[in-house]
What we know:
The protein has 142 residues and is mainly alpha-helical.
Amino acid sequence: MLYLAVEPVGVWHVLKDFAESGISTRFLSIDDGWQSINFDGQDPSQDAKNLILGGPQMTSRLHRLEEGEKFRKYEGGTMLGPNAPPFDPRKPKMLVSKAIELEHAEKDVDAAVRDGATDLSELELRIEKLRRELDEIVGDEG
């Protein structure tokens, strides 16, 4: 449901939706969306940000056995209080769609380089724009 866009607020709402639909959840597997991962050569004390699709995530490494930043920042009971964070059920699909668009743009650059293109500025600007848009969708969670 949340795929690689897993975050505490989304998990809470998915489980709440199950309960309201009469589905008793006995076991929840969050898979690897909760982990502290990063790329070789980056600061191992910092989590990689905004990894939505499997491609970039597959080249990252687990760098400590601790939940990722978005789960570390969660305070128990937050979802039950009057100032619970908002949740947009469309957000996981929006994240995946934007990440796919970004991945395609990055593949376009690779193809252009293979074809001998020398001016990649238009493609690079498109990638920068898509990364900003992805960051905006992720918001404070990233």
